[in-house]
Specification:
This protein is an all-alpha fold and about 200 residues long. The chain contains ten helices and no strands. Helix 1 crosses helix 4 and helix 1 crosses helix 7.
């Protein structure tokens, strides 16, 4: 049998990730087997093991693929510069637009919020996520402190509480939009919520 070309191997990898996303989204991580993913992708289990060590590695690969393609990794968010409240608004609206315009991204978030059982084998991934989330909240606190010193937000605000409120706004708006199955525009509703929040800081 002829060896697959690099392009064919990459297409196989994409087919596996697509099948994994569909099944993890429909059935949940724990109830989906590699056999089902292979069957959905039209490949053998051996093809999955060629690209991924196991189901955990496949889950990580799916996470990295989608977050990198939409530039929404927490690592990337930690690098964003904030020189004013408008920067915070622009960064959040970029996330909302990605969600509303990219069906894969929306499906991925639904999987993470509602169908990814963080079992023991996924615990290291959850721990990494918590660490990155804490780093992001610290960054938001530092950003608000700098804006406060620059006179761009009220001097009477508690910057730690502001960062926590922003985190709750983001997670709450995403959860509400996903649980309503996208019946409203998260860009429109999110924009109004963001503006209301940021205006309260001035």
């Amino acid at each position: 049998m002829a060896r697959k070309t690099k392009a064919e191997a990459e297409q196989t990898r994409r087919d596996i990730l697509e099948a994994a996303l569909d099944l993890f989204h429909a059935k949940g991580y724990a109830r989906t087997t590699l056999e089902e993913i292979a069957r959905r992708a039209g490949v053998t289990r051996g093809a999955i093991y060629w690209h991924f060590k196991d189901k955990v590695d496949l889950f990580h690969g799916l996470k990295d693929e989608i977050e990198c393609s939409t530039e929404t990794r927490l690592e990337d968010l930690l690098l964003l510069s904030v020189n004013g409240l408008s920067d915070i608004r622009d960064n959040l609206l970029r996330l909302y637009r990605n969600l509303e315009n990219d069906e894969h991204f929306k499906k991925y978030f639904e999987m993470i919020f509602f169908r990814a059982e963080f079992t023991e084998e996924l615990q290291p991934m959850l721990n990494q996520f918590k660490i990155k989330l804490h780093r992001l909240q610290q960054k938001d606190t530092d950003d608000f402190s700098r804006l406060q010193k620059a006179g761009k937000i009220s001097a009477h605000l508690d910057c730690v509480q502001c960062a926590l409120a922003l985190r709750c706004l983001i997670i709450g708006s995403l959860h509400s939009w996903l649980i309503d199955d996208g019946e409203h525009s998260i860009v429109e509703q999110g924009s109004a919520l963001i503006d209301h929040f940021l205006n309260s800081l001035r």
